[in-house]
Amino acid sequence: MGLLIKNVELDGKETDVLIEGNRFKAIGADLNAPESDFLEGQGMAVVPTFVNGHTHASMTLMRSYADDLELHDWLTNYIWPLESKLGEEDIYHGARLACLEMIKSGTTCFNDMYWHFHGVARAVEEMGLRAVLSSVFIDFSDEAKAAEQRELTMRLFEESKRYSDRIGFALGPHAIYTVSESSLRWIKSFADEHGLLIHIHISETEKEVEDCVALCGLRPVEWLQKIGFLGCNIVAAHAIHVTDKEIHLLAKNGVKVVHNPVSNMKLASGSFSYARMREHGVEVSLGTDGCSSNNNLCMLEEMKMAALHAKLVHNDPTVLSAREAFNMATLEGAKALRLDCGEIAEGKLADCMLVDLSNHRLAPGYQLIDDLVYSADTSCIDTVICDGRILMQNGCVEGEEEIVAEARRYATTFQ
Ligand SMILES: CSC[C@H]1O[C@@H](n2cnc3c(O)ncnc32)[C@H](O)[C@@H]1O
Ligand SMILES: [Zn+2]
Asked: Which keywords label this protein (predicted)?
């Protein structure tokens, strides 16, 4: 069974798009597929859906719970105490709310790091999105805890195979200040052995850098290079406080960096240097981070913030164009996660959305990509498709009232 989208605009031209199974089968004029479902695309444009490169989906339950705080204060005194009370059901309901929000804002794929792997996986499976879910690793340099976490990682890796192809497994060492050197070495060798990605926060705050220098005489990226941790399977969130030498090491090792402009600004973590990353050839994608430091999962907003922030810090309006922001939010994210989505082309995974060209925010309509980055909001998104399946049509997602009500109910139980 397929899906035929008729008379839709793609790259400024009207065309038809045929999806068969979970991939784009054909793109061209006057396609026929009598056996397929049909979508009228007149007045709409088809664009790739977003890939959120770094988030903690279930933190939707902590939206506006602890705002206007510095990162280490926020984590230690507010977030971690609350998270210690969360069970798998809480996390499932938080992840469902996140999936709903992502679908409604045009995201169909995300790279997640959170507790209770199965709670998140169940939500993603049911809601029809695509995700790379990492098994969290935090040991605070306690050997007993580290042994427990190694066991859990190996178990979850096996158990993750029960889910559909839309769910990938990665390792999730939280950061260098929460995971010991020996655990980082173990994580890297486990990931290399099994061909897995590693999702980690790196150089997010000045404190992280100062503590690392005080402890090992090296900055975080230099130290990670020394212990053999860096490589092309590392997806590093933030990478804000990095010298040119460290950026060179990231590029040389093929580390994928995820920029989270809203979270970086809200926590005043620091200024990401997009231009320096590009000069050195680092591959940069875009993420929202969790809902407690953002406070939403909207990649439209993230693209605009990334572009505006880069122009401001580099004092140059030509830095980080709308097209670059859009690529960071789509194809670059897919590449970092080694997924075959992020662009509309024959043979690629069928993840896409239809935007309503009659929406006032897209008028008069000189450049669709510029409009999506600088002007659009979620009201412009009509239809969202992931893996060839329609997840939203006419702006509606099945069961949305119940998802929101359940998340509200669960959030009140642990406060
Ligand atoms: C180990 S699960 C993820 C862990 O990370 C915490 N977290 C959320 N946002 C950030 C951030 O910007 N920097 C560091 N840690 C963050 C989250 O609360 C979970 O405990
Ligand atoms: Zn994070």
From this structure: Hydrolase, Metal-binding, Zinc
